[in-house]
Amino acid sequence: MALTGVLRAGFVQLRVLDMKEALTHYVDRIGLELVDQGRDGRVYLRGYDEFDRHSVILREADAPGMDAMGFKVARKDDLKTYAARIKDYGLKVGKVAAGEQPGVGKRICFVIPSGHRIELYAEMERAKNGPLIENPDMWREDPRGMRALRFDHCLLYGPNIPEVSKFFTKVLDFALAETVETPDGQIAAFLTCNNKAHDVAFVMHKDPAKFHHASFLLDSWHDVGHAADLIARYNISRDIGPTRHGITRGQTIYFFDPSGNRNEVFAGGYVYYPDSPVRTWTADQLGKGIFYYEKELNERFLGVVT
Amino acid sequence: MALTGVLRAGFVQLRVLDMKEALTHYVDRIGLELVDQGRDGRVYLRGYDEFDRHSVILREADAPGMDAMGFKVARKDDLKTYAARIKDYGLKVGKVAAGEQPGVGKRICFVIPSGHRIELYAEMERAKNGPLIENPDMWREDPRGMRALRFDHCLLYGPNIPEVSKFFTKVLDFALAETVETPDGQIAAFLTCNNKAHDVAFVMHKDPAKFHHASFLLDSWHDVGHAADLIARYNISRDIGPTRHGITRGQTIYFFDPSGNRNEVFAGGYVYYPDSPVRTWTADQLGKGIFYYEKELNERFLGVVT
Amino acid sequence: MALTGVLRAGFVQLRVLDMKEALTHYVDRIGLELVDQGRDGRVYLRGYDEFDRHSVILREADAPGMDAMGFKVARKDDLKTYAARIKDYGLKVGKVAAGEQPGVGKRICFVIPSGHRIELYAEMERAKNGPLIENPDMWREDPRGMRALRFDHCLLYGPNIPEVSKFFTKVLDFALAETVETPDGQIAAFLTCNNKAHDVAFVMHKDPAKFHHASFLLDSWHDVGHAADLIARYNISRDIGPTRHGITRGQTIYFFDPSGNRNEVFAGGYVYYPDSPVRTWTADQLGKGIFYYEKELNERFLGVVT
Amino acid sequence: MALTGVLRAGFVQLRVLDMKEALTHYVDRIGLELVDQGRDGRVYLRGYDEFDRHSVILREADAPGMDAMGFKVARKDDLKTYAARIKDYGLKVGKVAAGEQPGVGKRICFVIPSGHRIELYAEMERAKNGPLIENPDMWREDPRGMRALRFDHCLLYGPNIPEVSKFFTKVLDFALAETVETPDGQIAAFLTCNNKAHDVAFVMHKDPAKFHHASFLLDSWHDVGHAADLIARYNISRDIGPTRHGITRGQTIYFFDPSGNRNEVFAGGYVYYPDSPVRTWTADQLGKGIFYYEKELNERFLGVVT
Predict the structure, then answer these.
(1) Distance from the CA of B95 to the CA of which of A59, B175, C121, D162 falls in 20 to 30 A?
(2) Could you give all domains of chain D from N- to C-terminal order, each with its CATH number?
(3) Any idea which residues of C carry the catalytic annotation?
């Protein structure tokens, strides 16, 4: 296959203050499947159109935020190869034993210059009720709530964006799809390892290891509007949207889970190829880049992170 | 970049009976950009969201059909590598000089067991009026006609489907996303080299080198409906749709260009990854696979090719 | 109010062979609300966006079809006025006591020249869980299944179409929005009493009192596609669609309930006003009028009625 | 016909500072048809799906704003009837000669307690290139720009809202579809004369005769998003949206014409009937009523009028 190495953003582990409220939010509202309320106290979720066992892990804790983000690689050997390249680059590489997350093989982990813990893994069990593959119907059951198909990407805030961008492109073989450049240098990087506009993105922030949002894919702009109706009906804390990003062109709405972690549901965006040129945004047009319709920066969107 | 080797279906060269009528169809109705009416008598077109110079080539001829389908590879070296692998596999490999198509580098060409001429190339000039990349707007101008974003894939008819499927997966590093299996063996293969459900597909047919359709990507089911309105308004010969495919899940409408070549415009479809299982269809459910709503085979769709 | 007299198609009473199967169909699939499984053996349903208590009545019987279609008038006095006008026109007018349908006031009934039983009523109780009106949300709960908002209209088959058309326009103050004219006279009439393209329509058929379909309003073409996905997923017997009507411009899909009664869910259509000209279709273009995309008549659609 | 008296919001006459810029805005961007650049200096426009000759009149002036809003009545006799009723109510009624607007019959005019000039007319010539009626296609040409189908309603600001509300319901036979009530009384009224949620609305403002916006109907939420893309692409001054109103449920985006007059394009909204209850909003929920997603008042939306 021509798509090798890192395949995609595979999971995100989030901290929530109250698990019951979190499940109402992620299962009933966003529409994720409840896979497993694990003996380890963590809860495992998945979008209905994902083959792997889980993609969202919720852990009850005293403060919201992201524990780690995991990327799936194509083959077990890739873990060794990337571990070596990451060490060569100068980062420490740790190991997580197989089974630490139920159904997941061994992982390698490392902290990138923005302060975030990133993990790579090659193996995850197939979901028991995943997408159909024998004369398949569209879905087993009519999708629920916001009808999220899958976990798609995260946006992370922290320092050292140029370093992080270089690390992902040089070491993990990502491509820089879009960049925001100021007279003082790069302040945001949108990075992809496949045909999506981004699998992970980073925005400059003085504090390390900050979580901006986890994003879930919807089918269409129609479903973005439907998500907005649900957000209004159930008094979910809305951040901004429905709108469109200039960067990635995604049609989007942002809101907060009951613990204050930001979520996005989105649709659309262009198809990225390795021969696509880097799209570049300048500081004076950043408002348009972030919110294509509003064309202005929003303090809450820029400042509130977990 | 984790996406290497063959990147995508890059161009299709079609024969048309009357160039003027063809341009009304492809430019005004489907909404492609007219790039160049070449001195070689061929006309070069492109979807408004494509970076490369052209993706559709029209050649006036006495009979409709497809001359060749071209795939873009990531690097010039790939051409050598694939040429060697194709020869090893047992096919003859020819060369096409750089510039034979304006703005395109050297190509290699070969005829696959279904009788179709396939080409690989690594270099094509960037379109002069391609997508914007500096603080980019969505598009330069509001898209026209059916608002086709890009040439997406072809479906080709011919013999030796299992051979062709094997060739694309073993030699060109494609993945088999979906297959149709009968007691007499595989009769259709949907092959991808990236995150799309297919870049090219093959269906068994007694005659070699037959062309079923060239497909163009739309934004949404809404635009599929709008395409249907245009087809009705301008008396374009409609084949079937709006409907959905079981195979690939694409939302689609089929119609014919004035020369009798079948076109598709479509939206949607799932995201394919190398770790996605092969979706398998059996002969008794093929109707549902091809037309998810109609659930029945359609003689014209199966039989009319150019 | 400038909208007086007959307000709208208010209810349809249908015969079904198996009530349990019918409820799965109308409640779980189409998404109607179950109002009441009456002591009279009839079941009462309503679209989630309707204020009145019910709009669909199901009665278990040995043969499918329609018992009666009811239109709501603005005021109780209208019943007297219309009764007199209907008698003047030459039809017999019967009375149905208040409460014959739970929550419905007295009705008048009559059989029109096509053989159908039509009823008028002025009073129906407000639904207990109808649309919100105090600082209202969009809906109480996220709509279910096909997300039908309301019962919208019926298409009825029978003889004497010109007579029926005249009766509705001259006696009941409807307007003829569209008509199909052949050298032998009018064969179809689309009749409205408000801004919709039709509240009831009639097509010529040799047998009297035939039921073609009951139609339910959806929000959008997107939801028409979603209905098609549900029809495919649950193996509901599909008739035709998704497509568009030339007549009324509605975007539509047709299917059958488990008893063989045809249903439609649709979206769109133009806004009709009393000063809109009559749209006229000729026999040679009837295919386009009925199915704007297919542009051809369909024997099943024309011939299968209950 | 059961729909009598005042049929609909029929025209609005707006003042613009620069006619050339205004035409680019209303014709190229919103997509209205240019009917006539009259010898009287006024320019006449129409939505592509309107039968009457024109519905928007632009007049070059030193200050933006609305000259008058006109409602069409069903019959010439209605003009006399309403003139008498309006005089009985205590307002002065003036006359405008037939032909003052090309193709329009005689009008009556009066100033309502909010300070706005309202006109009634019964006759307007049919548009030369209006909607097709003989075996009609959807449209003559693929709609342009934002693809506005028709002028739909205005929102006007001024004092004496309860008086205005009473006038429209008691004298002009409108219905109050929605109202905003505060401890100090009614501050907004949404008034309809047909099945729309509103044909005209009024919001309390200290200054009389203020114009908030003229609104144009779109096909769908998809087209609201497309309008937003055009607004961004052409740097049209955006006010707010895409969003949804709690009041009327319309899906909407607001923006300004080059002279500072506010426009809306919208889709959706419920179907109103005379037996629909009045929807009531309280002051504390007004934010949700105006912008269902934002749930907060917006100073610019409330304060900027022409």
Answers:
(1) B175
(2) 6-121 (3.10.180.10), 150-303 (3.10.180.10)
(3) 153, 198, 213, 245, 254, 264
